[in-house]
Amino acid sequence: MAPPHRTPTLGISDHRPHTAGPTRRSLLAGVAALGALGAAGCSRVATASDVKGGDLLDRIRAQGVARLGIAGEVPFGYIDKNGELTGEAPELAKVIFKRLGVDRVQPVPTEFGSLVPGLASQQFDVVAAGMYINADRCQQVIFSDPDYQMLDAYIVRKGNPLGLHNYRDVVEKKAKFATGTGYAEIAYAVEHGYKEDEILIVPDQVAGLNAVEAGRVDVFAGTALTVREVVKKSSKAEATEPFAPLVGGKPHVDGGAFAFRPDETNLRDAFNVELQKLKKSGELLRILKPFGFSEEEMTDLTAKELCGG
């Protein structure tokens, strides 16, 4: 993988002062009506055709709607307290799909770990959940270029009594470690020597905070932005400084992007064209800034680099 175009030691700043959003569980319960809407009349998107590069873009233009797979994670993609779809990925999707001639987007909520299988089984048209690009996922889906880059951070008890600042610390100090369902942080911990069957897997960062506060684990690993957001109102826990995990012995910066089915390269390519325009104009930062993203999270990384080739 080519090195990131921005330094991996930069922190996260300029967070939006909003309250903690819904967990994935509450999203699934609270927006059942939206899920039903996605299922009504067409529980799955139309099957792909034999057109080279896929004809999904033409089909969703004709339908006037693109179905977005989301996972109820603030700030990446969720339903707000007013029942409205929002988050950095859905808001960006609204702009890009509008430019592509698709007037409307519709959420299809699911668990994070079900996003890739749900895409493959055509439950939705695109994953719009801020999903990290990694080599394993690149074998199953095709990604747009990333719209942001991100570091990791930990939730620990106040004062960080075990002094946990990276994955090596977690292993060396034999800390009880947790992270989220399907999170890239699982692989990072394992690479540093943590036994996968000893990792506590929880649904999301809210459950991770609860586990740390209750003393069931010493540390929860997640993205720097979500970790900092979720601990804001906690009297028992805090976030560590952001850091770049080591992958193959080198600091690694993750990039989040939209995922498409492998045969839909035409839609992915058209999406990338509009994304690059937004990056060059500065419009991308304006769209993402309300969700806590700053100039530090803007990136010139490509999906090809992050896929390892």
UniProtKB/TrEMBL annotation:
Q: Would the keyword Isomerase be found if you checked this record's keyword annotation?
A: no
Q: Which Gene3D superfamilies match?
A: Periplasmic binding protein-like II
Q: Which InterPro entries match?
A: Ectoine_EhuB, Solute-binding_3/MltF_N, TAT_signal
State the encoding gene: ehuB
- Read off the NCBIfam families from this record: ectoine_ehuB
CDD domains per record: PBP2_Ehub_like
Tell me which Pfam families the record gives: SBP_bac_3
UniProt key word Signal: yes
Q: What is this protein called?
A: Ectoine/hydroxyectoine ABC transporter substrate-binding protein EhuB
Recall the taxonomic lineage recorded for the source organism.
Bacteria, Bacillati, Actinomycetota, Actinomycetes, Kitasatosporales
UniProtKB keywords: Signal
- Residue ranges annotated for the Solute-binding protein family 3/N-terminal domain, each copy included: 65-295
Give me the ranges of the annotated region Disordered: 1-22
